[in-house]
Amino acid sequence: MAVTEKSILTRLYVVTAFMFLFAIAVLFKLVNIQFVQGDKYKALAMERTEKMFTIAPNRGNLYSDDGSLLATSVSRYTIRFDAVTVSDENFRENIVPLSNSLSKMLGKPSSHYQKLLRKAKVNKNRYALIARNLDYSEYITVKDFPLFNKGPYKGGLIIEQKTVREHPLGKIAERSVGYENVDDEGYYSGVGLERAYGEYLRGVQGKRLKQKIAKGQWKPIGWENIVEPKDGYDLVSTIDINIQDIAHHALLGQLEHYKADHGCVIVMETETGEVKAISNLGRTEAGKYYERLNYAIGESSEPGSTFKLMSLVAALEDKVIDTSTVIDTEKGRWKIYDRIVKDSKWGGYGKISAGHAFEVSSNTAFAKMIHNNYKNDPEKYVNRLMRMNLNKKLDLPIKGEGEPVIRFPGDKGWSGISLAWMSHGYEVSMTPLQVLTFYNAIANDGEMVKPRLIKEVKEWDQTIQKFDKEVINEAVCSKETAAKVQELLKNVVEKKYGTGHGLYSPNFSMAGKTGTAQKNYVSKDPDKLKYISSFAGYFPAENPKYSCIVVIHEPDKSVGYYGADVSGPVFKSVAQKVYATSPLVDEVDMEKMKDQRLDKSYQRYYAEAQKNYKQVPNVKGMSGMDAISILENLGIEVEVRGNGKVKRQSVSQGTNIKDTKKITLELS
């Protein structure tokens, strides 16, 4: 028995010792966790229960040149209910009036919301969905509802905000307006102006602390953000929605008529390079058209006969010919090595001047003109083209500009027929906007300006950055050469023999060049042969205000494919309607400013008028931004409602400015 007692005592001592050592180990671990690794575990616990979330700022607005919204950010709100934080007493007192308020605003019966809220309370749901996609005014209203007005803790109100991008004017210039996305790693992608000027539009992210609740959901803590987001800047584009609408529908109608694959149209202000309209339409399998790709900027292809202008300018500048130089068109067929250059007119044009060859668009005349005059020194011709910037990109901020191709002797693809083929727009490649930029330079007496899609960056009414006219090449040619080809471009439309005479109208003048380029011409299968129809030029012919190019790919050959027939009517429609809608005249009852004509932005007129104003001016029809600028410069406080142009003004024209402290403008 003694042995047994001793054995028991030994075991007891062992167990006690073990427990003592275990207690020491536990104590050591507790000390280690508390003092050595405490910060680590506190941070880990915090990370698992509380987390900092980023808040996307409101993206800046994108406006047309008259203040109409092309793209804007709109806040949308989701309302949820935390049933756990609400006391039973508060819940009983407010469930019926809260449900009645929700029913009145959201349209469902009060019983629906009572059932939803009671179920959340019973199930201790901390994240019950009440409503989605509310606008700001609805969100403000919900915050004042019974129970919810007690806040996130006593009232259980959870607010989630997200920002969505909307295009108020629908599909207008959709591809050029574009979009911008950001991935989880913070890398941005997208197209158009939204991507090109994303650094201005994005703003600065805010921060919001949230607490983890059931089922991996996160609930905002408190009302306020840790860091408030900073909204992005606004962009004022050069797009004129009136001209854009005209161009879009003119192009769409022609694409549908000719069952073409795709096409584009660009309208640019001659003096400044401001792009007033840019439309890109591609065909779906169902035969519908939409803004699929930015063909105007991104698609580089052989321009065909519109390139004859570049060849003629080069030859005139190098003085290897004059417009009166006679060229034999060889009955419309001219063989060079093993290839034959053909005119569209069977039998050719006989012996004609270089100027007349341009007006009738003779391929044989241009092939002979360039080949014969440059064959011993082909570098001279190519160098002249390069001095006219035809081998350089426009360096646009919009991503995806197509690469221009002007081969140099010795380059891959250069051969003995290259000069002849380049002369009339083959073995070269340019985008529609690159071609238009050259035509615009000719309309500008030789000055080449960079196309521009943005006027300025703004924060409210303050200009952050202004984008002014940028000259690419002060003189792509001499003024003498420019004057000569200007006359020929005018004759293309006005003379009965000109390839564009079918577009002639006695009511307004145009100047331009037709182009019909073949696609897949190396194939011997006639079914694979496609066409690119184009027309490039400017209007009015005498004092150009706008330049324009229309390019249509793969029209149905059974309907037609010549540039004058397919693309030319779009050009004419744009020119005609812009002529009809451009004149803007306003009269102000002031002795020094009577019957003065306003330019489109009204700025030039009012800069002078402000010196003399004693009465409230008429700002109806102006863009909101221009009207605000004018009135505030006169010392009048302005309240604005809506977007776009001024539809109504609360103080009528002629009211004494001294008696006017505030005016409300209603915009369309």
Automatic annotation (TrEMBL):
Database matches in Pfam families: PASTA, PBP_dimer, Transpeptidase
Keyword tags: Carboxypeptidase, Hydrolase, Membrane, Protease, Transmembrane, Transmembrane helix
Listed GO MF terms: carboxypeptidase activity; penicillin binding
PASTA domain location: 610-668
GO BP annotations, alphabetical order: cell wall organization
Membrane-spanning ranges: 12-31
Highest taxon, organism lineage: Bacteria
Keyword Transmembrane helix: yes
GO cellular component terms given for this protein: plasma membrane
Entry's localization field: Membrane
Primary site of residence: membrane
Alphabetized InterPro entries for the sequence: Beta-lactam/transpept (IPR050515), Beta-lactam/transpept-like (IPR012338), PASTA_dom (IPR005543), PBP_dimer (IPR005311), PBP_dimer_sf (IPR036138), PCN-bd_Tpept (IPR001460)
Name the record gives this protein: PASTA domain-containing protein
Taxonomic source organism: Zobellia amurskyensis
